[in-house]
Amino acid sequence: MQAKTSELLLPKAPKNGSRILLEKIKPFWQHLSFNYKVTLRNIFRYKVKMIMTILGIAGCTGLLMMGFGIRDSLAGIGQKQYSEIIKYDLIAVDKDSLSSEQSTKLNQKLSSSQVNKHLPVYFENVSKKIAGTNQYISIIVPEKGSEISKYISLRNRSSGQKINLNGRGIVISEKLAKLLNLSIGNELSLVTTNGKKVKLPIGNICEMYMGHYVLMSSGVYRKYFGRKAIKMLN
Question: What pLDDT shows up at residue 145?
């Protein structure tokens, strides 16, 4: 009530600025520009805003670093998976009923100079529910178990020891073993595409970073599936 009308119409004057500790260091303070001085005063004056700014910048920097780390990690895994472990370039699946003429053309194509090498195998994709989600598992049965190393490097991740398919059990990928909490000597239960349930003894666990794989010899397949592995893939 005591203020004059002309004073009420004017904007309120800002609060008096307070001096900060850095101003006492005259050689340092005198060499700063006006903008730097205002910035430093505001930082020390509004401490909550300063803390929020620091936390925001630190959080954004952390997210950027994490993103670069994930990118570099995945790039390394992909390089290792498809240069050291998976060595084949292409999977070609045969139809169930090929005519003799089609079979001849296919064999000629595979034997041509365009194809460096090939290996007939039985291939089947099955799904298994793991931790509430359907995971797809690739079953591979090579015609010649000793030749699989030219296309897939089967080895133990820790020791680097090579794994062959001449044993009595199957070889499964390491990630699949971890998800199902399985180890050598346990059994893996699968349901094939025709609805048959099988329990397969695990003979070894191989290094694999992408996808789930189950590999076995033709003899193991015949023993537990009750039929011969039909050639489907080259």
Answer: 81
Between CA 60 and CA 67, with CA 64 as vertex, the angle to 5 degrees is 135
Q: Where are the beta strands (DSSP E) in 179-218?
A: 187-191, 197-206, 212-215
- Angle made by CA atoms 167, 197, 155, in degrees to the nearest 5: 30
Residue 52 CB neighbour total at 10 angstroms: 11
Q: Is 227 helix (H, G, I), strand (E, B) or coil?
A: coil
This prediction's pTM = 0.66
Which stretches does DSSP call E strand in 65-132?
121-130
Which stretch of DSSP H or E encloses residue 199?
A: strand 197-206
| Contact by Cβ (8 Å): 166, 204 | no
Strand partners, 197: 191
